[in-house]
Amino acid sequence: MTQNPDAHRAEAAMSPRKARSALLARVEERLAGFLAEERRTWAASNPDAVELVDCVADMVSSGGKRLRPSFCVAAYLAAGGDPGSSAVVDAAAALELLHTSALLHDDVFDASELRRNEPTAHIRHAVLHTERGWHGEPRRYGESVAVLAGNLALVYADRLMAGAARTEWSRRIWGELSTELMVGQFLDVRAAARFRPDPALARWIALFKSGRYTVSRPLAVGAALADGTPGLQEVFEEYGLALGEAFQLRDDLLDAFGSAEVTGKPARLDFKQHKMTLLMSFALADEPEVRDLVGDDLPGTDPDELHALLIRTGIRDRVEAVIAERLKVANEAVAASLSPRWAAELQAMAKAAVHRDK
């Protein structure tokens, strides 16, 4: 996608928020166009395959905060990148497709029935299996479709990033990001099965499964595409790691204390899935009452009783304090190194990411 020089100058003169919004609008167009072309290709080749492409497209079009593309685009622009670039548009779209892959897989791992207030992919396809009177087990079919759709989204992400990441530096960051996400997912599953309070491991999982791939790595991708200086990468790393941890801790609190009607997914799913989140690690390691109530059976614990106990023992307040401290670190990192305009923009993005209700 190209623009004329006058359009480039107009975008460069925009406020940081408007410039970021303009690029993000192009990211949405790229995602929609790419997936529509895939659908046309497969409809002509083998119409049955369209259902798998649609599974990816449905997740992409169902909403979402677009945090990863937003941080990628913000870092790119803050580092002086050309607003007319097609490479950053492809990279930001690739990040959203990587996120789509993770969500499709997460919903299977967690046996979640809702995502963004709609039935999850594996549930929808299990229902289709039943309605069509097909052979085999509907649950297994639905899960298989969702896993394959997640894999397809990952393939699409790699295809887009292959065209965007034109330097060894940007390709290395993408490879590290993808690897960290997979390893973090595995360690999350493993920690749930082992179910042993380990705040250090829980913090590591929070950083690599969510924090790094949500904030610091998308920032790094954007800066690399703009040929940002190594010093700027260090700033984004400090900001991104602090904000990424705060973001994941907010997720923990929303799962434990949020409303399913607002978050769009089942409440207290981490309890039901035995997830050793940082919140639960704090609680089990430091609060005898919580240990006595939970024992080794978190899914069997009365969620309302655990909810009340977490509030009474101060765990919720403790996590909020960690979030506030991490947000302060993130804000100070960009205030000390970026222009006032972009420091203010990244601080506003941090506030929105952390102080959210879904």
TrEMBL record:
Q: Which UniProt keywords apply?
A: Magnesium, Metal-binding, Transferase
**Protein name (Swiss-Prot/TrEMBL):** Polyprenyl synthetase family protein
Q: Which InterPro entries match?
A: Isoprenoid_synthase_dom_sf, Polyprenyl_synt, Polyprenyl_synt_CS
Source organism of the structure: Streptomyces palmae
Taking the record's annotation, the residue ranges forming a coiled coil are: none
For this entry, list what GO says about its biological process: isoprenoid biosynthetic process
Names of the cofactor(s)? Mg(2+)
- UniProt lineage: Bacteria, Bacillati, Actinomycetota, Actinomycetes, Kitasatosporales
Q: Which Pfam families does the entry link to?
A: polyprenyl_synt (PF00348)
GO molecular function annotations of the record = metal ion binding; prenyltransferase activity
Note whether Cytoplasm occurs among the keywords. no
